[in-house]
Amino acid sequence: TGTFGAPLPPPAVQQVKLVPAIVTPVDQPKLTFRLKTRSLVTATLLDESGNLVATLFRKLKKPGPQSVAWAGVTAPDGPYRLQLVAQDAKGRQATASVPVTFARAR
Questions:
Q1: DSSP 18
Q2: In CA terms, which of 45, 59, 83, 89 is 20 to 30 Å from 69?
Q3: Is cis: bond before 9, omega within 30 of 0?
Q4: Does residue 52 contact residue 46 with C-beta atoms inside 8 Å?
Q5: Dist. CA 4–CA 44, nearest whole Å
Q6: Residue ranges with strand state E in the chain
Q7: What are the tens digits of pLDDT across the range 24-70?
């Protein structure tokens, strides 16, 4: 909602959470976050050097709370970052990330 002719607010990715944060082969982690505006959201898994390991999804999402079940993505044991990039219709971007660790067993 807004005023006619008023500029749209920039995108924002807020309250990003991945549960569990330590992922084993049997887990199906749940990613939750909140969007401030309608955005094209890309979720990627990055290694410690910031290199792309996998793209989890790239979808247009409405504003508000979001929940995504993460399945089918594996990586060697170790620390990673799950990065979300939200881009609005004007090309403005917002980025947020959370740590995630892959482990064969806990």
A1: E
A2: 89
A3: no
A4: yes
A5: 35
A6: 13-19, 22-23, 30-35, 39-46, 52-61, 64-69, 78-87, 93-102
A7: 878 888 999 999 999 999 999 999 999 999 999 999 999 999 999 88
Question: How far is 30 from 39, CA to CA, in rounded Å?
Answer: 20
pLDDT tens for each residue of 15-29 = 999 999 888 878 888
Could you tell me the two tokens for 90?
A: 């004007």
CA distances 11 to 27, 36, 38, 51, 71, Å, are 31, 6, 8, 24, 26
Could you tell me the strand order of the sheet in which 64-69 lies?
13-19, 30-35, 64-69
* b/e per residue 43-77 (b: at least 16 CB within 10 A): bbbbeeeeeebeebeeeebeeeebebebeebeeee
Look up residue 16 and give its two tokens: 């990003």
